[in-house]
Amino acid sequence: MEGVVSLKGTILSTRVSSQSLKPSNWKSQFAIRRSFPCVSMDSHEINPSICARAQKLDSRDAVTTVSPISDSLEQAEQALKIKDWEAAMLHEEIAASQGITIRRRPPTAPPLNYVGPFEFHARNEPNTPRNILEEIIWYKDIEISEVHLPPLLLKERSPLDALKKALDSAPPTRDFIGALRAAYQRTGLPGLIAEVKKASPSRGIIREDFIPIEIAKAYEKGGAACLSVLTDKKYFKANSSCTDFRLCPLLCKEFIVDAWQIYYARTKGADAVLLIAGVLSDLEIRYMVEICKTLGLTALVEVHDEREMDRVLGLEGIELVGINNRNLETFKVDISNTRKLLDVRRLEIIREKDIIVVGESGLFTPPDISYVQEAGVKAVLVGESLVKENDPSQGITNLFGRDISV
Ligand SMILES: O=C(O)c1ccccc1NCC(=O)[C@H](O)[C@H](O)COP(=O)(O)O
């Protein structure tokens, strides 16, 4: 079925496939999917009666000449704008009440003549990112939302329907937590998640001669229990997807803001995904953890401070918690953060819930490993200190003070 729906400047193709639902910006897409029940979230198909109307209105001239419909479309468009804006405000308000300072999207002023519960919000907020994490998150939203990056964007190339179909033939996931536990039992040292990353916002280029598969193989040879692969291209210069590796269990290290990314990661061979508590609300974490479970994925839920730790420990179904020693807003790294967050009370909850805690970032020497192990971690996630070694396999031996591959 061909045609267009014209909502003022917004042109929606009505060819019945998710690839073709192409609003001019992410806000209208979000609003249309949420506010028109006729556009199903799963198939993104458009109700035939809307299509019929759309075909009558397949040019902007038609919108202006058929006035009753154009009036109602304009009203609908205004209502959508308001709902969309209110939903964004509500999301920010819930996130802020949970101590989340990362704003999901640039703040926008209320729609014209807006009167409502959020009337006085977002008037004086800066609409440039306040820190690097916020910048990454804002860009991620654009990257996955079919906007601005022609010719075909991520969601457009791989709509949810197609991802779900691809999963029918995907190989089963490997047991990420099982691999960490086994390594801990075998060596008596924290299980290693060795990170494949070329660059980072805080360190710039970490390794020039970066051949991901070679590094991954060296990690496995050196005794890594699991791999972590940074897949962000813009900020971490990733040039591989998880699919390139079928070695030990794999964490897809992405900045997840949309459940679609979880499905995508699964089709790309991930066994685990990262959920950042400083970005996602409690409800989002619960929802995404559920999705992970249905897909056989492990969720590594990352925290940085006490408040995030307590939020996450209070949620059901959490099995793996990462304490990042790096403040992703300021880049400051302090491994005593792991000890600070693992006080007696929290360690008791962790033990009761049988959660594995991962110490992340800033680990360079055997004393660093001993320090976080004594604090209570049973796994560590290490990037820089291994990636920059000529022989990353030997780097693992140096980091642990002994060969952990045997
Ligand atoms: O590392 C960064 O600069 C950074 C900036 C913004 C968001 C995330 C960032 N890093 C992710 C990580 O925390 C690390 O890749 C990971 O924990 C390994 O850390 P390290 O061993 O210190 O390389």
TrEMBL record:
Catalytic reactions on record: 1-(2-carboxyphenylamino)-1-deoxy-D-ribulose 5-phosphate + H(+) = (1S,2R)-1-C-(indol-3-yl)glycerol 3-phosphate + CO2 + H2O
Protein's pathway: Amino-acid biosynthesis; L-tryptophan biosynthesis; L-tryptophan from chorismate: step 4/5
SUPFAM superfamilies associated with the record: Ribulose-phoshate binding barrel
Domain Indole-3-glycerol phosphate synthase: start-end pairs: 155-398
Keyword Lyase: yes
Keywords tagged on the record: Amino-acid biosynthesis, Aromatic amino acid biosynthesis, Decarboxylase, Lyase, Tryptophan biosynthesis
PROSITE patterns reported in the protein's UniProt record: IGPS
GO biological process, one term: L-tryptophan biosynthetic process
One family name in Pfam for this protein: IGPS
GO molecular function annotation: indole-3-glycerol-phosphate synthase activity; phosphoribosylanthranilate isomerase activity
Enzyme class: lyase
EC id: 4.1.1.48
Name of the featured protein: indole-3-glycerol-phosphate synthase
Annotated organism of origin: Carnegiea gigantea
